[in-house]
Design a protein that fits this description.
Number of helices: 12
Radius of gyration: 22 Å
Helix content: 10-25%
Number of domains: 2
Bound molecules: manganese (II) ion
Largest sheet: 8 strands, mixed
CATH class of the largest domain: Alpha Beta
CATH superfamily of the largest domain: Fumarylacetoacetase-like, C-terminal domain
CATH topology of the largest domain: Fumarylacetoacetate hydrolase, domain 2
Oligomer: single chain
Shape: globular
């Protein structure tokens, strides 16, 4: 049976009705008090399946031979093996977790070792991220920012409809969900001030994004074509690309964002394989003007896909929890499918000049703003530069993020038979 078959059930208690059913199987890297060596696991319900244990018991030997891919800090080795290996591993893991397969279900000793309760797993970054690129692929977000800082008539810069605009981020400050984030300090300059001042950022913001991890990658000088791009996408993760708007405003001319962005980026520890998203694939917004040829899949190679490649119906939420509130309050609901440029186009564009990508590189989407004011993906837009503060149930209001506030992002796909949770991206400002 195909791992996405809605009829599949798992023997793991509670998994079938959770957001992490057998059709999901996201990968992560974890350690436990009993074994502090980081290794790769797969989330199933409220458990983590320890792939190192299964690998050492020989359950992947026919797929990978003697090569150990899961007893590592990071998914990089596994990512480097490519799409066929990912498909085979996903098939094998699915089989081992099935309710009608006794291999793991009936082997108490192995099961005990391999199924780690989620509470016992300390989640780490999913990969050793070599390079991090951040795009700017939501037309609504680019339009909103253009309206605020230029004017509505020329909100989009002339290149935006032709190029998946992006910049190189900083990989060293990417942290897993739950890591506290320190408010950055830096130079800012008020419009009417003569000189800048130094101090804590006063306009701290989140950016609701999704990112994808790349697979084998390409040799320097050899672009990844758009028709082969999807085979390079290992899986997706939630990303909060924290931004200090006041620092950004003063520093970004002419080379783009620098210290306003590189103080922290939070990611979910779970990477949902692209294969698990296939039942939720859909087409993105119509692209007008038609992009240049290298950003379109040739008609003969489309195989039913749109020219831009597939996108996915992934529902996104941002909630804010202040110290005074009892519960997180949802301040935005957006969707991955609103992005104008697809992941395949981002990959094709990123490498068209010959730039090489490596296994475990992270390419993030840019802020994902939907078409309505309650679906915007940043405080800057939700509170419209501070002009329309967000009202919270506690009676507080927010224009930007305050100390002690926690930003919680969630993503999920909802189908007729099951729901896929893509994990959480949580960060508290100190
Ligand atoms: Mn960003």
């Amino acid at each position: 049976m195909h791992p996405n078959d809605p009829a599949l059930k798992s023997f793991v208690p509670g998994a079938d009705d959770s957001g992490f059913p057998i059709q999901n199987l996201p990968y992560g890297v974890f350690r436990t008090p009993a074994d502090d060596k980081p290794r790769v696991g797969v989330r199933i319900g409220e458990h983590v399946l320890d792939l190192k244990v299964l690998e050492h018991a020989g359950h992947f030997e026919d797929l990978f031979g003697d090569t150990h891919v899961f007893c590592k800090w990071g998914l990089n080795r596994f990512m480097s093996l490519g799409a066929e290996a990912w498909t085979n591993a996903r098939q094998r893991i699915s089989e081992l977790l099935r309710a009608d397969n006794g291999t793991l279900r009936d082997n108490a000793a192995l099961r005990e070792q391999a199924l780690v309760p989620l509470e016992a797993a300390h989640m780490l970054l999913p990969a050793e991220i070599g390079d991090y690129t951040d795009f700017y692929s939501s037309k609504q977000h680019a339009y909103n920012v253009g309206c605020m800082f230029r004017d509505p008539k020329n909100a989009l810069l002339p290149n935006w409809l032709w190029i998946p605009v992006g910049y190189h981020g900083r990989a060293s400050s990417i942290v897993p969900s739950g890591t506290p984030v320190r408010r950055p300090r830096g130079q800012t300059k008020a419009d009417d001030a003569e000189a800048p001042t130094f101090g804590p950022s006063r306009l701290l913001d989140f950016e609701l994004e999704m990112g994808f991890f790349t697979g084998p990658g390409n040799t320097l000088g050899e672009p990844i074509t758009i028709e082969s791009a999807e085979r390079q996408i290992f899986g997706v993760t939630l990303v909060n690309d924290w931004s200090a708007r006041d620092i950004q405003k003063w520093e970004y001319v002419p080379l783009g964002p620098f210290l306003a962005k590189n103080f922290a980026t939070t990611v979910s520890p779970w990477v949902t394989p692209r294969a698990a998203l296939e039942p939720f694939r859909t087409t993105g917004p119509e692209q007008d003007p038609q992009p240049l040829e290298y950003l379109r899949i040739p008609e003969s190679k489309r195989d039913g896909a749109p020219a831009a490649g597939w996108t996915y119906d992934i529902k996104l939420e941002v909630a804010l929890q202040t110290e005074k509130q009892r519960e997180p309050f949802v301040i935005s609901r957006s969707n991955f499918k609103h992005l104008y440029w697809t992941m395949a186009q981002q990959l094709a564009h990123h490498t068209v000049n010959g730039c090489n990508l490596r296994p475990g590189d992270l390419l993030a989407s840019g802020t994902i703003s939907g078409p309505t004011p309650d679906s915007y993906g940043s405080m800057l837009e939700l509170a419209w530069r501070g002009e329309r503060p967000i009202q919270l149930p506690s009676g507080e209001e927010r224009k930007f993020i305050q100390d002690g506030d926690t930003v919680i992002m969630r993503a999920y796909c909802e189908g007729p038979a099951y729901r896929l949770d893509l994990g959480e991206c949580v960060g508290r400002i100190m």
